[in-house]
Design brief:
The protein has about 170 residues and is an alpha+beta fold. About 40% of the residues lie in helices and about 25% in strands. The protein has one domain. It has seven helices and six strands. A six-stranded antiparallel sheet has the order 1-2-3-4-6-5. Strand 2 and strand 3 form a beta hairpin. The radius of gyration is 20 Å and the shape is globular.
């Protein structure tokens, strides 16, 4: 009976083992439409940097301010003056749901744009696409596996994180 249980456990555990996602990693392409929309992301960043003192004032000493809109969220209007919040909403609308779902502004003025998250169930893989804005003087750090990145210009890095969920 014990041998049967051990054998069943081994069969199930090998069947649940995540697949090698190296081919997915190497074949996953940067979205050219994201790169083409860089001027809109630039405009969004300019608004966030313009109103950065207001964001910082309301961040309660947190290391960053994260905004992910929801139907019931008025947080943006609490952190930014009305005209700034309206401009941010305008850029979200202009970019569209497939190209932004949130952002994070850090105390050092770097900004992370949340582009999209997706998954590949057959590999138990979550894929997170991001843009990072680095203000002048900040060094763009190279990402390491399981992430890959490309520098778009002196301020922008497009990076993708591959997060494989493990069982056992």
């Amino acid at each position: 009976m014990r041998k049967m249980i051990v054998l069943l456990f081994l069969c199930f555990s090998t069947g649940c083992r995540p697949k090698d996602f190296t081919p997915v990693f190497h074949n996953y392409k940067y979205d050219k439409q994201v790169i083409e929309k860089l001027p809109v992301y630039d405009s969004l960043v300019n608004v966030l940097l313009k109103y950065y003192p207001s964001i910082q004032e309301h961040s309660n000493n947190a290391p960053s301010y994260q905004f992910i809109p929801s139907a019931f969220s008025f947080d943006l209007y609490e952190k930014l003056p009305k005209e700034g919040a309206k401009k941010v909403e305008q850029y979200f609308f202009q970019l569209g749901r497939n190209f932004i779902y949130g952002f994070e502004v850090y105390k050092d003025s770097t900004i992370k744009i949340y582009i999209r998250d997706s998954s590949i169930k057959s590999h138990h893989l979550h894929i997170n696409e991001r843009l990072s804005f680095y203000p002048p003087g900040k060094v763009i750090r190279q990402r390491e596996f399981p992430a890959k990145d490309t520098v778009l210009n002196r301020n922008w890095q497009y990076w993708i994180l591959f997060d494989q969920k493990k069982f056992f």
